[in-house]
Specification:
Length: 262
């Protein structure tokens, strides 16, 4: 199979890389992706970065017909950038999409692991917290927060995944169609939890593969305490609603779909 035909066994794959002020990183990450898996395409979804990230992406696109740029009006959050990227991928006829950070925390050299696992699955989550996975250069308090957050998510939602908050993952387009990503309410990092939760509830074949996570070396992190609070609130709400729906079903009543229910 040639580059133009896509990844063997999957078809056309689009790696979506959301950016906001990633001028120091975008050339490096795009080059690593192109070298690691030459058959995939890249979409840089830039939120009108004032540091010129979008202009650099345009230069990369002009020089490489596997790289595309989606210019967005402004900073609207990670979730909104991915939703726009998914819609772009669907319109262009891609068979699968990959989520990847621009800062190098997700190693493009491990992309083949996600895609190989996608051959027999509908969705693949890159996971830091299973054997073979690791986290490098994170302060202890942030690692503890992430691990505890994922334990809470498993308890609240009943999902088996060890790393539902990770942002390195691959989806077949059929999954995104079925879970109606355009209606996803989360804009920040809880977007990742909501996508996994929707796909899990639909019964899709999902698996985790170990990844190596590196804290960014250049640029500023977009993580904040507000991000964690949004995630905690949404997960708690979903978990309570799931238990309420389960109780209603046992009582022979039809659960009501609420505005906060994914």
């Amino acid at each position: 199979m040639t580059e133009a035909e896509g990844y063997p066994g999957i078809g056309r794959v689009l790696v979506i890389i959301p950016t906001y002020n990633e001028a120091e990183n975008i050339r490096l990450i795009a080059d690593r992706v192109r070298k690691a898996v030459p058959s995939v395409d890249i979409l840089v979804a830039d939120d009108n970065s004032p540091d010129g990230t979008g202009e650099i992406a345009d230069e990369l696109s002009a020089a490489d017909d596997h790289i595309f740029v989606l210019h967005r009006a402004g900073k609207e959050g990670l979730g909104a950038a991915y939703v726009a990227g998914f819609a772009w991928a669907k319109n262009k006829g891609y068979d699968a999409v990959v989520e990847m950070d621009a800062d190098g925390s997700h190693a493009p050299e491990e992309l083949h692991k996600l895609l190989d696992a996608l051959l027999e699955n509908d969705a693949v989550l890159g996971t830091r917290y299973i054997p073979g996975g690791s986290v490098h250069n994170w302060p202890a308090h942030r690692l503890l927060l992430s691990r505890c957050g994922n334990i809470y998510i498993r308890m609240a939602l009943g999902m088996p995944f060890r790393d539902a908050t990770g942002g390195y993952r691959a989806y077949r387009m059929a999954v995104l169609d079925a879970i109606d990503v355009a209606t996803v309410a989360s804009l920040g990092y809880s977007f990742q939890v909501e996508l996994a939760w929707r796909a899990y509830r639909k019964g899709f074949r999902m698996t985790e593969v170990p990844i190596t996570f590196h804290e960014r070396e250049r640029g500023d992190s977009k993580m904040s305490s507000n991000v964690f609070r949004e995630q905690l609130l949404r997960v708690t709400t979903w978990g309570l609603q799931a238990r309420k729906d389960g109780l209603m079903q046992r009582l022979g009543r039809r659960p009501k779909q609420g505005a906060t229910w994914p």
